[in-house]
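Dear colleagues,

As part of the handover before I leave the project, I'm documenting each prediction I ran so the next person doesn't have to rerun anything. This entry is a single chain, and its sequence is reproduced below.
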Amino acid sequence: MARRSRVAVALSTLLVVGATGTGAVVWSSTHSGQNTKTAAPVRVRTATVARTDLSDSRTLPGTLGFGRSHVLKGTGQGVVTQVPKPGARAARGKPLYRIDDRPVPVFFGDTPFFRALAKTGVRGNDVSVLADNLRALGYDTGPAVTPKGPGEGEEFTPALAAALKRWQHDTEQDATGTLVPGRAVVLPGPVRVDTVEAQSGDAADAVLLTYTSAGKSVTVPVEATDVGTIKAGDKAEISLPDGRTIRGTVTTLGRTVQGGTAQDSTQQTGPATIDVTVVPDRATEVRNLDTAAVQVRFDTTTRKGVLAVPVSALVALREGGYALQRPDGALIAVTTGMFAGGLVEVSGKGLTDGSKVVTAS
């Protein structure tokens, strides 16, 4: 900050930054001689220094729906005899379709039943899926026997086989205590049937249906260069077509980059993007919408409880740095922080909440 003796010189070289940050007005003081008449007092426009929260946000278009569709292909032998209707929900332990007129119930997990589970002593992640689901359904599977190495799954024990047999009996299946591929289907969770591809008479190992998440979410394509500013757990605001704004939470960031220009291609397909999934905090707020174009606002950076002024109040000194001008003409040296929504974070000696500063007219 210039010393008081340099203020007169500085005032002739100050640049007042405009509200957009691009324009500038030169403040000058000119004396034309002894006969110059005394100028009338000039009324200045002022703003109040306020303590507030600043957020660096961006608003992007998105699509409300049930998310990406996944294909379910059947396994095992037999003939399809009954398929679900579009919109049906898959529930743990409940049948989703029928093969050879026998129900095929749903288990939740990430490893399908790829082999017969009949001989005790075998182990694997498919055994873990069976055990986890039977426990979730309330069956006593006995102590879990797991190997020392991670990721190798549980052991198919006599107690687990007995629990499987009880469940089969309770659900009117053949109570054999064994499980073969095609007699149960493993899905990632309580999904929703999107489209039905098979019909009665098709082979059991055909493509049966497509499914989506059971809950609605918003898919937002975000430029790959910007996705690093968004993370799972961040809050967002979703603007719906009917004018309502609801809150949502970022749940997942995609791993597949879409678009962009390939190195061996001259055709531009648009900027490279990654899909970000935002789930409404209250599902009931979108229960009357199956799909819709929406706008999503992400608050990528937030500064809480900072002093802020309009950007147009900043005075850029030609020798470097910024200042604010009080209505009496005194200058206050300030350090700037975040710029957001036409405001700028400022700090400096003698700057307090409620102070008045001059802004560019």
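The first helix runs from residue 7 to 11. The chain has three helices and 23 strands.

All the best with the project,
I.
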